[in-house]
Amino acid sequence: PYDWAARLPATLAALALIAATVWLGRELYDHRSGKLAGLIAASTLGVYLIGHLLTPDMLMAMWITVALAALARFHRTRALGYGYLVFAAAGLAFMTKGPMGFVVPAAAGIGLTIAVRKSGGRLGLPWVTGGILAFAIGLSWFLAVAAKFPELQGYFLGDELVKRFASKSHGRSRLFWFFLIILPLFMLPWSALAIGLVRRTWRTLRARQRLSPPQAFLFAAVAIPFLVLSSSGSKLPTYVLPLAGPLAVAIARHLLTSPGYSPARVRKLAIGSLCLCLLAAMSAGFAQPYLGRQASVKELAAIARARPDFDRAELFACNVRAKGWEFYLGRLVHASQAESDIVLPLRPDQQERMHKGTRALEQAMRDKPVAYGIMRTETHAKSF
Predict the structure, then answer these.
(1) Residues 6 or more apart from 14 whose CB is under 8 A from it?
(2) Is the pLDDT of residue 204 over 60?
(3) Does residue 383 sit in helix, strand or coil?
(4) CA–CA separation, 227 vs 96, rounded Å?
């Protein structure tokens, strides 16, 4: 199997996110701001890393950034088509990976609406009809699947929406200030240059000065989702990705309006960051032994496939996630129930490969003529 093909959608989405960031900066300010924002997004550590991961976060963040850029374009031109594009892109973001697809564009829209009203104008975004469009697109896949499998209704609403935000049942709970550490790391190497942006924004808010519509747009697009994420019972580093586009634009505008701005220095920083990312990617193989359960199982699968009795062997994964193991083996495997995401009732053939615990899996494999599997060292010492 070609593992690069599985990651290709995330990489293409990362490139589209960078292009949408350029568009966003251009619509909010000017071409110069857009180009610099795109350069910042392209050379940001978090964007580079997640663009190589097999996860829907990048695709969701791309749609969110498109929605923000369309909103900025609508504010500038009042073209109704761009207004509906905001809601269509938000719906696609929701369909890709849930509520943040609505939270970020809605936050930016509210911030922009308030700023425009304080300036004596009216934004005129089609909230009602656009909201219907966004929900129609965003919920379409969920409704179609839930209609075919009614038992998924409770899973979507209960587990994936309510429990993920309001409880710690998913085992991803972190302290409230978790993203205060993650976001600066995510935005490296531009975090240091963003310190001046934070100071400037704080002084503006403290002095109760009115934010311009672009400033209110960016502030709301970052601050409100950040508070929502920090309040959630489920936290992962990848969750801050939708903030990359508006943050890149905010940092770019801060640099361009700073007295000591040096284009040459900024270009050197961006090139240096990209070189470090490429060097890290080329050295990824050396880090494999230190990644533990997050390491690739490609080499282990190659060892199993090379065995002369592979075709008749039973395959299993004990207390580890089996997705990569199955992918590289090209075969279905036995698994322990604790590490399996079981949502729908299992078919009889699936039930035969699912085992309640380590002991049950060990006994089932003991009865087979030959079996190959993966597990943690301590699991092997304790139960096998």
Answers:
(1) 47, 48, 50, 51, 58, 62
(2) yes
(3) helix
(4) 22
Q: Are 301 and 329 in contact (CB under 8 A)?
A: yes
The Cβ-side half-sphere exposure at 258, using a 13 Å CA radius, reads: 18
- In whole angstroms, how large is the CA radius of gyration of the chain? 24
Ordered DSSP codes for 289-323: GGSGGGS--HHHHHHHHTSTTGGG-EEEESSS--H
Residue 122, token pair as written in the block: 């009216």
Each residue's pLDDT tens digit, 128-141: 999 999 999 999 99
Q: How far, rounded to the nearest angstrom, does the alpha carbon of residue 37 sit from its chain's CA centroid?
A: 19
Determine the Cα–Cα distance for residues 300 and 309; give it in Å rounded to an integer. 15
Terminus-to-terminus CA distance in the chain, angstroms? Answer: 30
pTM above 0.90, yes or no: no
CB 278 within 8 A of CB 284: no
CA-based torsion, 189, 272, 58, 26: positive or negative:
positive
Tell me: pLDDT of 297 over 90. Answer: no
The average confidence (pLDDT) of the chain is: 88
Distance CA 9, CA 4 (A): 10
Nearest CA to 318 out of 270, 346, 356, 275 is that of 356
Tens digits of residue pLDDT in 76-85: 999 999 999 9
Closest CA to 220 of 67, 128, 104: 104
> What is the model's pLDDT at position 218?
95
Helices (H) and strands (E) in the chain, counts: 20, 4
Residue 290 has pLDDT above 70, yes or no: no
Q: Is the pLDDT assigned to residue 266 strictly greater than 90?
A: no
pLDDT given at position 381: 83
User: What integer pLDDT is reported at residue 267 of this predicted model?
Assistant: 85
Cβ density class 302-314: b for 16+ within 10 Å, e for less: eebeeeeeeeebb
Name the token pair of 289: 């032994």
- Residue keyed to tokens 């991803």: 172
Nearest Cα to 95, choosing from 53, 148, 133, 151? 133
